[in-house]
Amino acid sequence: MRRINVGIAGLGKVGSQFLDALLSVNTDNVKIIAVAEPREDLESVKKAKENGIAYYRDARDMLSSLEDAIDVLFELTGDAVVRTELYDILSKTANRKTVIVPEPVAFLIWSLITHKSS
After folding, report:
1. Whole-structure pTM value
2. Which CATH code for domain 4-114?
3. What is the pLDDT of residue 87?
4. Where are the domains positioned within the chain?
5. Which residues are 4's β-sheet partners?
């Protein structure tokens, strides 16, 4: 089965929970390859680094640097300007591989992977 390379932009409240949820999923099919967060002192940034995940201070730099190595980019910054600029980067680089997933869809996925059967 094909491996999906994931990037996470924003490791605040939602992003850090999302990082934890994805790290807890035991699969070789999904790999977090990079995260972006301007606040380097966050515990979630430390956790990402400890897990060998590339760290960027800016999501735009992450996407520009890794180009289409990222299959799925979870955009969890809550910043409309950053979101727009990420789409602009995809457009300008002709990257047709990377899919940007907005926060509501990320929340749905997070809910599904953390849901415990009653």
Report:
1. 0.90
2. 3.40.50.720
3. 93
4. 4-114
5. 30
